[in-house]
């Protein structure tokens, strides 16, 4: 007997847990401190994998694409993530260096989305970031070939075994295509879900596009 997808869907709920309240009037002037506060609260609330996020890019034709990546950091320079420059997303970012990020933390009914230009960090910085991570992260980066057609599962097994051996022997092994990217947001939206569907949406928009920073304008949005 097959699963009744629609019945299952109807049985599921969102915003069915006790949700925190969010007073946008008390929000800071810039988005980074609020992101950091919400991130820490997500960790404290036991949200699983709060450091994973959707990364949306567009290809040369402007067609959208999305996948999950890990957040490597966030500071005045932007939100950092890493991948292979030769991967599908790497090629898309080379063609259109602009992306969106999305976080969803259901433990608290919170969503954060960001949009902005993406820059490639200097290669040494990308490699240092990789070498400060786990052996598994280095092994994964050393395997390479990301987004290319794989001939067989055995082929991946052999490449992965070799990559793990090398990562253990040579913790500073270079992974030449592995690249650190930074998204410098022009817009950051904080969404606090509410059981009565009076969700709070607070958006920060950068008022000046200069690389020196500049201020932020805050606005509420209808949910
Ligand atoms: C939880 C999770 C974390 C991931 N983190 C990364 C990451 O940090 N970098 C990365 O390149 N791929 C990561 N991936 C794999 C990507 O989702 C994706 O499959 C891969 O990067 C290829 O994407 P592309 O073909 O669009 O380039 C992660 C996947 C999951 C499910």
Automatic annotation (TrEMBL):
It comes from the Bacteria. GO terms for molecular function: pyridoxamine phosphate oxidase activity. Residues 41-154 form the Pyridoxamine 5'-phosphate oxidase N-terminal domain. Its cofactor is FMN. Its EC number is 1.4.3.5. It holds the Pfam family PNP_phzG_C. The keyword Repeat does not apply. Residues 178-223 form the Pyridoxine 5'-phosphate oxidase dimerisation C-terminal domain. Keywords: Flavoprotein, FMN, Oxidoreductase. It is an enzyme of class 1 (oxidoreductase). PANTHER family: PYRIDOXINE-5'-PHOSPHATE OXIDASE, PYRIDOXINE-5-PHOSPHATE OXIDASE. Belongs to the pyridoxamine 5'-phosphate oxidase family. This is Pyridoxal 5'-phosphate synthase. It comes from Streptomyces mirabilis.
């Amino acid at each position: 007997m097959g699963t009744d997808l629609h019945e299952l869907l109807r049985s599921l709920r969102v915003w069915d847990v006790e949700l925190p309240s969010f007073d946008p009037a008390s929000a800071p002037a810039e988005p980074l401190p609020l992101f950091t506060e919400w991130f820490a609260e997500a960790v404290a609330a036991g949200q699983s994998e709060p450091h994973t996020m959707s990364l949306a890019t567009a290809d040369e034709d402007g067609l959208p694409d999305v996948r999950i990546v890990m957040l490597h950091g966030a500071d005045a320079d932007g939100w950092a993530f890493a991948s292979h420059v030769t991967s599908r997303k790497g090629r898309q970012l080379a063609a259109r260096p602009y992306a969106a990020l999305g976080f969803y933390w259901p433990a608290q009914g919170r969503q954060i989305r960001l949009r902005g230009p993406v820059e490639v960090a200097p290669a040494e910085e990308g490699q240092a970031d990789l070498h400060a991570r786990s052996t598994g992260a280095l092994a994964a980066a050393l395997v390479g070939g990301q987004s290319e057609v794989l001939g067989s599962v055995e082929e991946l097994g052999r490449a992965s075994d070799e990559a793990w051996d090398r990562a253990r022997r040579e913790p500073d092994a270079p992974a030449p295509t592995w690249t650190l990217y930074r998204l410098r947001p022009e817009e950051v939206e904080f969404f606090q879900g509410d059981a009565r569907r009076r969700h709070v949406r607070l958006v920060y928009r950068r008022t000046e596009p200069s690389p020196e920073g500049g201020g932020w304008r805050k606005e509420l949005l209808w949910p």
